[in-house]
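tool=predict chain=A
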Amino acid sequence: MAKTVTVKAPKYQEIANALQEDIASGVLQHGDRLPPERELAQSLNTSVGTLRKALALLVAEGALERVQGSGNYIKDDGREPIYSMFRLELESGGGVPTAVVIDTEFLDKPQAILKHGGVKQGTRIRRLRFLDHMPIAVEEIWLDGAVGQLDAKSIGDSLYGTYRERFDLWITRAIDRVNVSQVPEWAPRAFQLAPGALSGFIERQAWSDEGDCVEVSWTWFDPAKANYVQHLR
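tool=predict ok
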């Protein structure tokens, strides 16, 4: 009988992968300088030699740039990290964001968001959000109908990436208001906080590069699993 053998990746490869995930999630942003190697190795519970192998791999892949006498920098490849505006992180820090679409509908907008401009109708998207495959939030997003319509099959994990691909729409500015609120009645069981329970709450308004408010969203997150974190540069 044939046997399946699982080969564990070398430690330096695991570290390189973890740093790549932080770049993709926006925890590490283009132009950021990494901490000194000894400090970074200690935080990653590894040796400086192993860390240097991981950094050399990232340099070879074009994700990192070494500046003599200055340090290691996240290389700007001209592309925005796909999760650069995602502000939820695991309590332990970071986490790779993914999402499952619960439903989409093209409807009249609620009265609460009509004041933000645009047309009367919009695409309503409801999603369950994950960090490292752990359910941490549910969200309801309203995309202005003047932009276009979306269905569940056309939406990727990065909604802003989907906007760019489908409509050439770039979200360049957002305002978040963080509070507490009750979990909505439509939240799936997988979220693990029951409808009506208190949760963290984020209301976001987002603007396009042309200055139009094209999206309003509400996110209910489990504060026992995730924090709202703003990285300042």
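Helices lie at 11-25, 37-43, 48-60, 111-114, 159-167. The mean pLDDT is 87.
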